[in-house]
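Quick one:
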Amino acid sequence: MSKILIVEDDGAIVRNLSDFLRGEGFEVKAASGQGEALELAGNGFDLALLDVSLADGNGFALCSALKRDYDMPVIFLTASGDEFSVVTGLELGADDYIAKPFRPRELVSRIRSVLRRAGKSGAVMELGALRVDTEKAQVTKNGRELFLSALEYKLLLVFLNNRGAVLSRAKLLQEIWDASGDFVNDNTLTVYIKRLRDKIEDDPGDPQIIKTVRGLGYKVGK
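Output:
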């Protein structure tokens, strides 16, 4: 699983972007400024998303430090039409840039492209006999491909990215509501969890991967 460091001082952007990237199979940490980012940078991140304008420090200086000290791929988040920032960032060694407001799917595509070029794609997650290739959006079990709907796949990623944690139904609904553009309610969630279990469990009647925690929600083991 690839680890992404977001350096952005807009809390709303950080929350929304972090939730989206986790849903796409990434591990995410965030820093609001240069100092905090440098403290976190040694924790083995595969890529940094940097805002050019930071309340604490400077995105350009941070880019230089991350490239020099950690050889970390960097994608700049820039204001729309800010040509100076784009040129400066690329001259400092940034691997790509994307203008705000950006489309999340496009950003994920750019991230995966940069990770591939850097040899850090980390696109495969495994849990027992399950293997999830997030780059290909492919799920296999014991080498046999499983065909999941968009919502089933999204739900599986949410569970895999929260191993060991109890996820309430409200949390799951929050994570998957827009995965297919369809409205998802509590009853629909029950249906999708059943369908997912039917496909990934050896015995859906006695699930060992997605376990029910009575009165609290669901849990996937580490």
